Structure formats: structure tokens, C-alpha cells
Amino acid sequence: MVRRIGIALAFTLATAAPAETLYVHAGRLIDTERGAMLADRLIRVEDGRVAAVTPYTPPPAGARLIDWSGYTVLPGLIDMHVHLADTEETNNIAEPLLHSVSEIAYIGARHARETLMAGFTSVHDVGCFRAFADVALRDAINRGDVIGPRMSAVGAYITTPGGGGEVTGFAPDVQVPADMRVGVVTDAADATRKVNYLFQNGADSIKLIATGAVLAQGTEPGQQELSEDEMHAAVLVAAARGSWVTAHAHGAEGIKSAMRAGVKAIEHASLIDDEGIAMAKAKGVYLDMDIYNGDYINDVGTRDGWPADMLRKNRDTTEAQREGFRKAVKAGVKLTFGTDAGVYPHGLNARQFKYMVRFGMTPMQAIQAATVTSAALLNWSKDVGALSPGHYADMVAVANDPLVDISALEHVDHVMKGGAIVR
Description:
This protein is an alpha/beta fold. Helix content is 32%, strand content 21%. Helix 5 links the parallel strand 10 (206-209) and strand 11 (245-249).
């Protein structure tokens, strides 16, 4: 007799990947590699990975069967721009200084759980003010100490003194803690030293702050901060270690400078111009554009009294970024799914899907951005982003069809990570 498991699965399954074989009956399965919807599939899972996907037939007698026959099943989602190991954005520019290192650890654990429960089973955590808080969170998740997504961590921001990756906006005699300035660099040689230090202490990849930031006071999004030589030095170190570099870059010239320096991806790309889009296409550079975020900043920031210059910079970049996204889609640039979660509450990541469709993608393209394309940027294509044999059994189930209404992904019913049901 087949043992069917529904919502009331024992919590022990959620804390460690089961060694046994189990089966998932998917009523509809989105094949992200082929861009197709498959009806009535049986997914066999062995030791936390997909072993086979076949048309549905009853599994062997006594087998554990997870009955998702009433759902659309797709690979676990990937968010390429989150900030789990930090506080969420508020109207207080001193917020990063109001929390101890130990408190940030607990906050990060809560954010990780919220993200996983929303169906995002893998993330690229692109920076925290307390150096290596993201690395520690990643390791805690991998040990099973806390529940969260698979994480790629950068350790700290590589930024210029007073730049977009610094805690800013205070009186000049305020001393910022040393662990908030680990990635501050002054020249290319310093960049080489600091990037090596990040890798030595567990970073998976590197995040450069190439231009000013919307939410850092005293910086302007269109202004380049890191030099091309500094960025190239970081790229060389990462390449020597078999890793890669992404660059926060809003301004058109900073974007192009970062691409010439050899980065693999651009975060935000808010003010990208036609030349930059063509360069990204030619070089195969990924664009990771958080096109939902501007509405949240404007609405909540206005309501809660965020600093006026932040709201002004947000207005200056939001619609330009969306137009750049539309052009990049049309040009066939590689676009990942990245939200800047942490600016807005974690767990709401899927709100961006409808914006990606609104500004030029098909629902399937948006889903592929959050699965196979993001997995490729992470260099994790063999493990995540798809549900073909060999991949981790990371999957989500939703009641409605996201190819008909992409907002269905905002209401995830079930989540599996590595063969263990967590929701």
C-alpha cells in the first residue's frame, strides 16, 4: 500500500534530508530547462536528489508518496540579491548600529526561514554590514542549526571610503565599528588584499560597490566610486580562486566600467544605457534588476518618513530601471531574478515576478530567470534550478498555474528542500 503524505508531515523530515527513496506526484510540472509544462508526473527522490521524472504511474507498494497532484510543481526558486544577515530598512540611518553581532545572528536566522517558506530554496546573499555574518548564517544552515535556503555569501562589501557600501550619514566624529569596514579599499593593491581576506574567511563570491547607492546617504547612484583598476584587481583574485564577481552599479558609466573590468554580473543596472545593454549582451554579463523594489521604497518610505534624499534618488532611478529592463529583455540579455530583499520584508520576494512580466517577460521567462538562469550565474546548474535527474530535490508547489497568472508564486503552498518538506 502506498503511504500518502500531505500537509501534516512530521517535522523531523524538515530538519534533515531523508536517506530513503520517496516519490512526488506532481499534477503539473514546470520543466525549466525545456520551458515546458508537463502533466501528471512522478518524481522519484533518492538521498535528497531527483533520481527520475516519469509520467505518473503508482509507485511501488509501501513507498512514501507526497501527493501534490492538485498543484503546479516547479524547482525551488532562487533570489540573486538578498540581505539575510542584517536588519531590514527603516527610517533611522543609525539602524545598523543599534544591533549587536549576536542579535544580527538571530535576525538572520529569522530572515532565512521566512525566505525558505516563501519558496526560495537558494539565494545569493550580496552583503551585510557586519562582516561575515552571512558566512556564519550560511554555515549554520548547512549544519542544520537553522532552517534556511542554500546560500552563496560575499562576506562584506568592497567599497570606497564613504561609498555606497559604507554605513553613512553620521556626524564626522562617530566611529563605525571595524567589522563594518572590512571591505573598504583605497586602491587596486588594497582591493587585492581585501578580496583575498574575504575568500580566506569563507566568502563564496565578491560584491563590488561600483557606484553610489540609493539608500546610502552622501552617495549618488549615477556616480562611479570604485575605479576600473580596483574592480579588475578584485576580478583577478576571484578568478584565481575559481570564483566570480558581481557589481552594484546604478550609473551608466559605472556599469560599463565594471563590465570592462570583467565582472560576471551587474546588480540594479538602474541607469544602464543602450551601449551598456549591447555590452552586456556581447560579453554575456548577467543583469540582476530589482524592478519591484522602487514601488516599495516610494510607498513605505514616504509613509514612514525615510530620508528625503533616499526617496529622491529612488524616484530618479525606478522608471529608468524598468525601461532598461524592458530593453534588456528585448535584446536577449541574460537576466536573473534579484529583489534586494531586506530593503523590504523577507518572504515577499515573489512580488517581483509580476513586475518582470509587466515589463517584458513571459511568465516562463520570469520563472526561468529565478531558476535555470540564476543557477547558471551561481555556477550551481548541476545542483539547483531544475528538476531533472541529479539536481537537489528542491521544489515548490502552488495551487494555481503561474504560467496563466504569475502572481500564483506569491502564494506558495508547499516547499521541499533536498527531499525534506519544510512547508
